[in-house]
Amino acid sequence: MALFVSGGTVCTILLISRLLEGSLLNAEVKEGEILPPTIQRLMKGYNKYLRPFFDNGPVTVGMSLDIASIDTISEINMDYTATIFLRQRWTDERLVFEGNKSLSLDGRLVELLWVPDTFIVDSKKSFLHDITVENRLIRIFPNGTVLYALRITTTVACNMDLTKYPMDKQTCTLQLESWGYNINDVMFYWTRGNESVSGLDTLRLAQYTVEDHYTSVSEAIYETGHYPKLVFHFELKRSILYFILETYVPSSLLVVLSWVSFWISQSSVPARICIGVTTVLTMTTLMMGARTSLPNANCFIKAIDVYLGICFSFIFGALIEYAVAHFCTLSHPDSNMLMYGHRMQEFDEEMNGIVTTYSSHSNRAKRRKEAATTPPPTPVSVELAVTPSSPSGSEPKPEAPPEEAPNRCLIVLALLRKVLHRSINCCHVENPHYIDNYSRVTFPLSFVMVNLLYWTYYLYF
User: Fold this and answer.
1) Could you tell me how far CA 416 lies from the centroid of its own chain?
2) Of 212, 276, 326, 389, whose Cβ has the fewest other Cβ atoms within 10 Å?
3) Residues 359-379 pLDDT 10s
4) Which candidate, 199, 211, 208, places its Cα nearest to that of 69?
């Protein structure tokens, strides 16, 4: 009974295999009916699952690119989106035919041929255009060379160094590798070297200009083996004019606007406070707007952040300057009273000089009159003072004991007190209006010097 069941199972399997072989043969016949005779002869015995030169070394695949457009370059996501025409050439000895003309086939017939398993390494998302049909091109030459072209739009990652943003240069790459065939099976090469990539000379970007581009050939090393790899490098330089008009000029004008308060009277408290607070808030808004187009979590201290920080410091310094000047005004009399006091002091000194001169002349005349009327004084004998210890007065007085040396701590404290007193006198402002006068010169000069250092460093270093 068991032998009968096992024999039936084997018969069933054989029957199913016969049916599958028949269906495959019928499908090949149907496909062959719609193919021209030349293609029928080429496809006869052709196995698309085996690469060319399967037993005779690796197949060489030549690559070339045509950059149709670079749509977007995102600093937030650190990637770029480009539309490219990818062309691949290789030789398949099984597709050699007689004649001197190439065969241009429908792109859908590529399913009947072996094609390289090329992929874009750093691609985040890609798609093949299919309007109105799939944008593929397949062309076979008499010597067996196959040309396979695709139109692809891909978003590729690009690691960016934003330290000098917006005066930066970024180098992005487009890397092509074989997914399953290693260097023993497939070899990649650029068909015309650096000229294998075209379209960048006529490319126009919004914020960038393409300064340089070149190609290279390398190998990708993974755990599963060494794989062929082609790399296309292109260098992008950011156009700074947009950022000068959008960020640098407004921030510089806000700094200059904050200096207007130096020419406003210190008694006009609302006017000066309004200018200071308004410029600070506007600068804060400008700084927040400049960061919207950049990554939120970024370890880079960008050049634009440094400049906005400098401008904010100068604007905030102008507000602090008025606070200091106003405090000095409250702790000192009014400047007009100071000038009046100085004049009154000079007048008093002048009057004191006149009175002193008149009184000295009067005293001299009075002394002359007293000298003429008073007889000369009689000499008075001077007696020597005698101390009780020496009644005769002949013994000399004992010498006084030497004074003790002053304490060193007292000397140090006295010196510190003198230095502190001098430093306080240096910080002392006789007229608070002098603070505004000094600020009118020091703030612009400092801002100009900082700008010279800033632009020199980020443009030439």
Assistant:
1) 48
2) 389
3) 555 566 556 556 555 555 544
4) 199
